[in-house]
């Protein structure tokens, strides 16, 4: 049996698309969905997600601790050994062959129709774990399946509301910039992150710090963990894109 693991700041429509796609693709094998919920809008998961186990996490979890910490935490709630990590909006596009999933292997990979990268994101959580604050990788004694088990496609995030779409993008930038800055300042925390990303973070350190600082009170709100302050600053900084609590 298989557990889907995903993380989200919001984008409930894209989340539903990913969940429905994976359940349909894997059939009865996919019997559990875990959502690490770091949503900044309270109404994102009030209904319509009864088929998932929602793991509530602080909105600034990725910003402060990076991706591996969050993935390992959410996967720890799984009732299955085998987990599949997909980002919100990612789907199984074609070529799924579940016949390769056997006890011989403890991790599996998928590819993309356009991007040449290969992702190893299906893993046995009891034998392997995630490492690296950004561009994370699974580590441990791998018994990796040599076959690509499916091809993944990216789909659009929720774009109907300009303000919310802007908030999601703003948070994504801050999370990534902050992880690169942390890598540069604390290279001992690199973990399984490729050395090339550490080199990048050190080369771009001053620019990344500048870009974070330019976000002003929104950045300060993430540093202090104050969601209300972040939303107030976001409303002010994006005139004309009004958000009202339901």
| The CATH topology of the largest domain | Spore Coat Polysaccharide Biosynthesis Protein SpsA, Chain A
The CATH architecture assignment of the largest domain turns out to be: Alpha-Beta Complex
Poorly predicted sequence stretches spanning 5 or more consecutive residues: 239-246
Kindly, what is the distance between the CA atoms of the first and last residues, rounded to a whole number of angstroms?
A: 38 Å
Order of helices and strands: EHEEHHEEEEEEEHHHHH
CATH superfamily of the largest domain: Spore Coat Polysaccharide Biosynthesis Protein SpsA, Chain A
Radius of gyration: 18 Å
Structure report:
This protein is α/β, with parallel strands linked by helices and 246 residues long. The protein folds into two domains: 2-154, Spore Coat Polysaccharide Biosynthesis Protein SpsA, Chain A (Alpha-Beta Complex); 162-237, no CATH class. Helix content is 37%, strand content 23%. The chain has helices at 12-26, 61-65, 67-75, 162-185, 195-203, 205-213, 217-224, 227-237; strands at 2-8, 30-37, 53-56, 82-85, 90-94, 107-112, 119-124, 129-131, 137-139, 144-154. The chain has an eight-stranded mixed sheet, sandwiched between helices. Strands 8-9 form a two-stranded antiparallel ribbon. A hairpin with a 5-residue loop joins strand 8 (129-131) and strand 9. The longest helix is centred in the last third of the chain and has 24 residues, at 162-185. The protein starts with a strand and ends in a 9-residue tail after the last helix. Residues 239-246 have low confidence and may be disordered.
């Amino acid at each position: 049996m298989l557990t889907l693991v995903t993380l989200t700041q919001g984008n409930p429509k894209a989340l539903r698309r990913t969940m429905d796609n994976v359940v349909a693709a894997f059939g009865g094998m996919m019997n559990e969905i875990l959502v690490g919920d770091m949503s900044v809008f309270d109404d994102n998961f009030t209904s319509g997600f009864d088929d998932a186990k929602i793991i509530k996490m602080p909105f600034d979890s990725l910003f402060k601790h990076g991706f591996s910490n969050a993935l390992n935490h959410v996967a720890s709630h799984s009732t299955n050994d085998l987990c599949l990590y997909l980002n919100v909006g990612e789907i199984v596009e074609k070529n799924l062959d579940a016949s390769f999933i056997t006890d011989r292997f403890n991790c599996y990979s998928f590819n993309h129709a356009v991007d040449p990268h290969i992702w190893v994101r299906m893993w046995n959580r009891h034998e392997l774990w995630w490492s690296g604050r950004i561009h994370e990788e699974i580590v441990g004694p791998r018994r990796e399946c040599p076959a690509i088990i499916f091809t993944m496609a990216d789909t659009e995030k929720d774009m109907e509301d300009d303000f919310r779409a802007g908030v999601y993008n703003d948070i994504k930038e801050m999370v990534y910039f902050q992880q690169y800055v942390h890598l540069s300042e604390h290279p001992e925390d690199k973990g399984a992150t490729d050395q090339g990303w550490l080199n990048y973070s050190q080369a771009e350190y001053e620019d990344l710090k500048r870009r974070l600082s330019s976000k002003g009170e929104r950045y300060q709100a993430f540093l202090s963990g104050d969601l209300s302050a972040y939303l107030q600053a976001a409303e002010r900084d994006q005139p004309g894109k009004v958000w009202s609590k339901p």
